[in-house]
Write a structure and sequence with these properties.
heterodimer; A: about 270 residues; alpha/beta; Rossmann fold; 6-stranded mixed β-sheet; 4-stranded antiparallel β-sheet; 9 helices; 10 strands; globular; B: mainly alpha; MetI-like fold; about 75% helix; disordered N terminus; binds adenosine-5'-diphosphate; binds magnesium ion
Chain lengths: ~270, ~350
């Protein structure tokens, strides 16, 4: 059985994206007996292979939504489905890259990337996938380094490789570039787009940067203040690679910043 | 790795200036070695010059040995450039050789030659050498017995402590039952159990093993537990989204993350188990270095006591060194660790 699936994975082309359906999801946290509503009736339908950016004020509930999609937490109300299958627990077809790389400091770069395959018990037969993933993010030379020897950008690339090695159907990115310097950021944005175009996975990206959302995504969802509601659902019909100075994008950006309550003349 | 050790500071690493007169640079590099040689020659002379006040058989050999050390110190440091790493190591330790030679000279003179220190209580160096040569079999037996007892008790205590710590840290149910017991019994010094242990256990050996295990187990349990409990949830989240099962979370996430804490517990356990070992050997077990100390005291054999103490400190220090090297090997991923 295991051998059969392994063989299938080698012979079939890269896994394409999965569809994601978020249906009337509400969620609240209990803080010392006081209920804190975080998500309010959020519905969102994502097509396979779409790149969706989630924008919203800080603390509105974006990360909470991503944790529900990942299956790390259960929604208070409503349902989430991946390819029509209810999401109940984490699964390697939906992998998260967090804002902090959270590499395991006691593992080398290679062993960190191998984590998913090892946890699923298929590392022995699939070692080449780890090498491929490291190649993909350009860190093959650092496979024996420990995380404390890496720069912030390199660590985040390792975290990306650790996610990609599982051939996820949905890649969940929670402000993965938020802490990087602007140069590294721009480089990694380009890498992200080319990876997404090659692999075809569905991408969910949380960001606080409207420009980043517009350069990367097919679709930008703008959330309200907490509890988060979908305030706007904007299509970005522009070919890649996109240019930051594109007047069409600049126009959308003004519109989005307006929705977020910022001065529209920015 | 950014470690700092005492010897680094003493290294003669100062770049040599070409203008410095040859004599000055020679003095700087070899002067301490010459001093060390003089100190050891003084020790040798102090052994051979005056008559011993007591009846010791190794005075002459000790004097000769001191001269040999003096010769090695001299040629080793002066000719260090031709001796490779050994010469360099000797040069680094030369200041210590000076101090040691001076101390031994003073000790020799103050005890064997003029008895400035009251004699039976402060034996001269040659009488301690005499113990090592003449009472060797008994001393070795004691070392063997001590190591066996310590090793058995420590390994049992460390293993049980580690497993208990992981279980409490991981499972709420286990924590509910074990935590109160731990709080109640743990802080009690293991030696307090001595009287009870010696009559409830079938042999004094098993009683001592139990006590050493107890002294080791408590700190190892508490620190393993706190290590497992303090593992960031982010690591578990990452592992779970990558498809990890609970066994993977324990073995590949919780335990490696807790390992630095576990080693702190192992060090603490080692220290407190040494204390228990010595007391148990003095009181109940009729073997081991603790017992040897007790026996020597009964015979007013003070030289034997010092000899046993020196061996004991070498063993304890060796055990700590071993644990440090195991830790350094397992925790290579940590930066800035202390060098022992
Ligand atoms: N585990 C938790 N327990 C209690 N409150 C939480 C928890 N996680 C998040 N929150 C709260 O929920 C709100 C939304 O958090 P989050 O989803 O992280 O926002 P963001 O949109 O910035 O990612 C915040 O006010 C936060 O304090
Ligand atoms: Mg967040």
């Amino acid at each position: 059985m295991v051998a059969a699936t392994a063989l299938a994975e080698i012979t079939t082309p890269p896994a394409a994206g999965a569809a994601l359906d978020i249906e009337q999801v509400s969620h609240a946290f209990d803080i010392d007996g006081v209920e804190l509503p975080v998500l309010s009736d959020v519905s969102l339908s994502v097509e396979p292979g779409e790149f969706v950016a989630l924008l919203g004020p800080s603390g509105c509930g974006k990360s909470t939504l991503l944790r529900l999609v990942a299956g790390l937490d259960k929604p208070g109300a409503g349902s989430l489905r991946e390819d029509e299958v209810r999401i109940r627990r984490p699964h390697p077809s939906r992998v998260v890259v967090f804002q902090d790389p959270t590499l395991f400091p006691w593992r080398t770069v290679w062993d960190n990337v191998a984590l998913g395959l090892e946890a699923q018990g298929i590392l022995k037969s699939q070692r080449h996938r780890v090498d491929d993933a490291l190649d993909l993010v350009g860190l093959s030379d650092f496979c024996t380094a420990y995380p404390h020897q890496l720069s912030g950008g390199m660590a985040q690339r390792v975290a990306l490789a650790r996610a990609l090695v599982n051939d996820p159907k949905i890649l969940i990115l929670d402000e993965p570039l938020g802490k990087l310097d602007s140069l590294t950021r721009i480089t990694m944005q380009a890498e992200l787009v080319s990876l997404w175009q090659r692999k075809g996975f569905t991408t969910l990206l949380v960001t606080h940067d409207a420009e980043e959302a517009l350069v990367l995504a097919n679709r930008v969802i703008v959330f309200s203040d907490r509890p988060a509601r979908v305030k706007a659902d904007i299509r970005v019909d522009r070919p890649y690679p996109r240019h930051r100075g594109d007047p069409y994008l600049a126009d959308l950006r003004r519109q989005i910043l307006g929705l977020l309550g910022l001065d529209a003349t920015w | 790795m950014s470690t700092y050790s005492l010897s680094d500071g003493l290294a003669s690493g100062a770049p040599r200036l070409s203008r410095t007169p040859v004599l000055a640079s020679w003095l700087r590099e070899s002067g301490v070695g010459v001093l060390a040689s003089i100190a050891w020659m003084a020790f040798g002379l102090s052994c051979l010059w005056w008559e011993d006040l007591g009846d010791w058989s190794r005075t002459h050999s000790l004097g000769i040995a001191a001269f040999i050390v003096a010769a090695i110190a001299l040629f080793g440091t002066v000719g260090a450039d031709y001796l490779g790493s050994a010469g360099k190591a000797l040069r680094q330790r030369a200041p210590w050789l000076v101090a040691l030679g001076a101390f031994l000279t003073l000790w020799e003179v103050a005890t064997a030659k003029f008895a400035w220190l009251p004699l039976p209580f402060f034996p001269p160096p040659q009488s301690i050498i005499e113990v090592y040569t003449d009472d060797l079999p008994k001393l070795l037996d004691s070392v063997f017995a001590s190591v066996k007892l310590q090793l058995g008790g420590y390994l049992i205590g460390a293993t049980v402590g580690f497993l208990t710590g992981v279980s409490i840290g991981w499972s709420r149910a286990v924590g509910y039952w074990v935590h109160p017991v731990l709080r109640f019994i743990g802080p009690l010094p293991a030696t307090a159990w001595l009287p009870i242990a010696f009559f409830t256990f079938p042999s004094s050996w098993s009683a001592s093993t139990f006590l050493i295990a107890l002294a080791t187990g408590f700190p190892v349990t508490v620190l393993t537990w706190s290590g497992v409990a303090s593992v960031s949830n982010a690591y578990y989240d990452v592992a779970r989204t990558l498809g990890a099962k609970p066994s993977f979370l324990v073995l590949k996430v919780a335990i490696p993350a807790a390992l630095p804490h576990v080693f702190v517990g192992l060090f603490m356990g080692l220290g407190s188990s040494f204390a228990v070992l010595v007391v148990a050997e003095m009181i109940g077990v009729k073997a081991g270095l603790g017992w040897y100390l007790q026996w020597a005291q009964g015979w007013a054999a003070y030289a034997n006591m010092y000899a046993a103490l020196i061996v004991m400190s070498l063993l304890c220090s060796g055990a700590i060194t071993l644990l440090f090297s195991i830790r350094d090997r397992l925790l290579v991923w940590q930066k800035g660790t202390v060098k022992w």
